[in-house]
# Entry
Amino acid sequence: MRLSIDRDRLQQFNSLEFLARQVVEGFITGLHKSPFHGFSVEFAEHRLYNPGEATRFIDWKLFARTDKLFVKRFEEETNLRCRIIIDNSSSMYFPVKSKVSIANPNKITFSIYAAAALINLMEKQRDAVGISLFSDEVELHTHARSSLTHRKFLYSEMEKLLPTALAKNKKTTNVSHSLHTIAELIHKRSLVIIFSDMMDHIDKLDEMFPALQHFRHYEHEVVLFHITDKKLEEQLDMDDRPYRFVDMESGDMVKLNPLEVREQYQKQFASAKKALKERCDRYRIDYVEADINNGFERVLISYLVKRSKLH
# Structure
């Protein structure tokens, strides 16, 4: 039985905002800086207040005269185009569980719910959102739109990925190729949000970083949610007994005791993670550690609150 996205769990994000830090290209009045109005912050006009949006730009003096809520629109305001990119390779279906739920997620379930929460938030802001799914190739790339019908379509596409168990088809990862392809498909300056465990073949690690830089080359703002199960994938925190480890993408198998390799494994994982963080800093990409054991709500709210303070 396929799981569905619980819309009620997304409502807690309605009091938050996701504002673009840099100039973006939009097409209707919204919250974000646009390159097409210059950089003036001069008042342009009033518009009716939409319930649920931020109240900081309400003209209270006008409200006192008219008993109606109007928001001040400034010349540089526009809405945002957001591109959410989700890794759908087989490694994202780790850890393998008999029953997956949002309270007991694997990496893909965590990512889908976090993405759904952001789509819900963007819709409240009247921002346009599109999604892209990839594994060894781009599997889906939708238009970026802001209608209710489009949001429902995005939810339905993401719900197809919500499993009750491991996906049967083995899908390898080609992060660099897929991200390069998606970067070429985004024609407007956008906010790009990536959900991925960033696990690729060891020989391709140096290729992943130029793929991330490709988005910055086209002046997109980029946020990378690095999805991991910290206890198992980073710390190898397992009982000291023999296990059979199976590669979820290739099917390759090895038998060993975690005690024999834990120290060296932790060092190598930490080194790779440090390199990813440093490259993200260099390219001005927001790097967000996303441990699925913390829950998508805690991770997402923590990031949005931190971002609002730095904005």
